[in-house]
Design brief:
33% helix, 19 strands, single chain, alpha+beta, eleven-stranded mixed β-sheet, 17 helices, D-Amino Acid Oxidase, Chain A, domain 2, FAD/NAD(P)-binding domain, Helicase, Ruva Protein, domain 3, eight-stranded mixed β-sheet
């Protein structure tokens, strides 16, 4: 199928959505929905996607930034899940080399038994990856561990174990998938909220939507509708089948961001056991140190979840056990929280409440296809399984999946120089970066940074508006760039200038400032 590069044009998309009947309509613009849009469009189906707020607004921009098999699932002996994720990790490296890269991890050892225990487990991890293993794991002595991770706690340190996984920029990956879908003819629009499914004779034929920018209502008609709404999936499932039992339970994951001195070497720390038995990561990312995560059951989904004080304390306490310099609340540059859509087989009210970490595809009698669970690393396989299920249900004609080798928008053809990983913010634009540089050459004022503590030039703001469907200042500073996740105070300080550059009202900057102030522990907000 011939493709052409297309900018994400909301006005053009809105003009098409209400007048065409599509083969496929995807509800939800996170990792799952965007993956389905790419899969469907690249198979040749006419494809539409509507997102209620912004692409990757929720969980899909708030991950731990890892493309990984899931070391902790080895302990649970969920080898099938680990093997699948490791295979997909390799695929993401190949199709998105500008966004995904190798990241070495060190597991510090303070007891003699940790060398054989974790060593054997990580060799199994290597074996499950097979030919797609990034690099073999190996034992490190005390001196090698300190040299590789100068900030590791040295009291009682015996050595470490190094293994390799992948890292990426989640929101930029989402934007690249949106652009890839558009390149293959898909029609995508943000700020389009689904109010109800269109049902006729018990069959789903599309969705009634509202353009939250203009307030206008419109219908999008399609032969097959995919529900990819994450923590909100049960709401859409209920519309497609009033008897559907709830299966989604939200769990909150929180991350703290510090300056690079807490991860100075470019290698990450994996803490194998925390207070609640989870693993904890200390990861270099965009010249900062990212520390997380938590796993807190939540009673209800939230569009803008906030870290609980006890979650912040948990991360600080457990990180301090493994870092030579203890992080404090005053060191925090930003806090972000996301909600995972965990699937309970049999429903959330089932006595067994068996929790599944893998994804689930469900085709209702109405024809609504719901995709739940999973994680970023397996987004492509989730999409493939979902579209294959629609084919099996005869909702769309048969067509082969192409995404295992389909390079995403912006992927360069030649080798990539990562400069030690510190310039990933530029690499995340891939081949589009040349056009942004041209904007700065034509107008040197656009080369000035949006803030003196942030690397992105003002040209990235205009590029986000003109090419990436950014509407608000938050769209730009949280997801088109990652400023809000790296330095909340800087965003508070530059919000008005960015909104003015975009031509947005003062209220847009004010709401972003409120969000920035909520992105710090309450006792140290600006």
């Amino acid at each position: 199928m011939k493709t052409s590069r297309r900018r994400l044009d909301r006005d053009a998309a809105m003009a098409e959505l209400a007048v065409r009947t599509f083969d496929v309509l995807v509800i939800g613009g996170g990792a799952t929905g965007l993956g389905i849009a790419v899969d469907a469009a690249s198979r040749g189906y006419t494809t539409a996607l509507v997102e209620g707020v912004d692409f990757a607004k929720g969980t899909s921009s708030r991950s731990t930034k890892l493309v990984h098999g899931g070391v902790r699932y080895l302990e649970q002996l969920d080898l099938g899940l680990v093997r699948e994720a490791l295979h997909e990790r390799g695929t993401m490296h190949e199709i998105a080399p500008h966004l995904v890269h190798d990241l070495p991890f060190i597991v510090p050892r303070y007891s003699w038994w940790e060398a054989p225990f974790y060593g054997v487990g990580l060799k199994l991890y290597d074996a499950l990856a097979g030919k797609r293993n990034l690099a073999p794991s190996r034992l490190l002595n005390r001196e090698e561990t300190i040299a590789a991770m100068p900030n590791v706690s040295q009291d009682g340190l015996l050595g470490g174990i190094r293994y390799h996984d992948g890292q990426f920029d989640d929101a930029r990956m989402a934007l690249s998938l949106a652009q890839t879908a558009a390149d293959h003819g898909a029609v995508l629009a943000n700020r389009c909220r689904v109010n109800a499914l269109l049902m006729r004779d018990g069959k789903c034929e599309g969705a009634s939507c509202i353009d939250t920018e203009s307030g206008a209502s419109f219908d999008v008609r399609a032969r097959c509708v995919f529900n990819a709404t994450g923590i909100w999936s049960d709401t859409i499932r209920k519309q497609g089948d009033p008897n559907a039992k709830p299966i989604i339970e939200a769990a909150q994951g929180v991350h703290l961001v510090f300056d690079r001195s807490f991860a100075p070497s470019g290698e990450a720390i994996m803490v194998p056991h925390t207070d609640d038995g989870r693993v904890l990561f200390v990861i270099p990312w965009h010249d900062r140190a990212l520390v997380g995560t938590t796993d807190t059951p939540m009673k209800a989904p939230a569009l803008e979840p906030h870290a609980l004080p006890e979650e912040i304390d948990f991360i600080l306490r457990n990180a301090a056990r493994y870092l030579e310099r203890d992080p404090t609340r005053a060191d925090v540059r930003a806090v972000f929280a996301g909600m995972r859509p965990l699937v309970h087989e049999g429903g959330v009210d089932s006595p067994s409440k068996k929790l599944s970490r893998s994804h689930k595809v469900e085709v209702a009698e109405s024809g609504l296809v719901s995709v739940t669970g999973g994680k970023w690393t397996t987004y492509r396989k989730m999409a493939e399984d979902a579209v294959d299920a629609a084919i099996h249900a005869k909702l769309v004609p048969s067509s082969l999946c192409r995404t295992a080798t389909l390079r995403v928008h912006g992927a360069p053809t030649g080798p990539i120089d990562r400069d030690g990983g510190r310039n990933d913010w530029r690499l995340a634009y891939g081949t589009d970066w040349d056009a942004i540089e041209s904007m700065m050459v034509a107008s040197p004022a656009l080369a000035a940074p949006i803030h003196h503590r942030l690397p992105w030039p003002k040209a990235c703001v205009l590029w986000a508006m003109e090419q990436e469907m950014a509407i608000s200042a938050e769209d730009v500073l949280a997801r088109r760039t990652r400023a809000l996740f790296l330095d909340a105070r800087a965003v508070d300080e530059c919000a008005h200038e960015v909104a003015a550059l975009m031509g947005r009202p003062v209220s847009d900057a004010t709401s972003l400032q409120d969000l920035a102030r909520q992105s710090l522990p309450a006792d140290i907000s600006p």
